[in-house]
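Please, why this fold?
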Amino acid sequence: MIDRVISKLVSVGADLSSKNAIKAALKILGEDEGLADYIYILVKNRAYRKDWAELPVEKRLIFLPQCLRNSKSCQAELTEKGYICKKCGGCDIAEIVETAEELGYKHVYIVPGGSMIYRILKSLDMGSFACLGVACLPELCEASERLTLKDIPHQCVPLRKTGCVDTEVDVEEVKAFLKAGIEHEEEKAGNSAGKN
């Protein structure tokens, strides 16, 4: 259904560059304006997919929301760069962090809010980089708009259960984003080794 609505928006030449433009186009077409956030995120994910996949994992930053933590049993410690997961297994964060570490990611942050994300981004001196964010749709849209203005490639994974505590995300979807482009890197490394 979403792909049909996006195709309809594209076919009429709708402006898909901002959430507000998408919302206005949906209204004109008689479609559900409540889809604007989700469509905006899908459009941005598609627009930046190649840039994300082509950057090595060392240049990719992962931002997970603290609301994914188990509010009753979480053992994570809060630092100036977010929570440090103790991998207690009480929530999905441990599985995501472990997968990211196995894939070679160096920058995984569990943050209590957007302001910490922007502080972290300002403190890094990495040259080019890309971000993957997991959050509720309004937070993802706000972050995406800000990152787009700075031309920072990014990917977004919406929570499937929202709220401010004990939220949920599709862990397999997050893993798919984490693995994007890595197979290509492994092929290049294998080809280089074969030539020596």
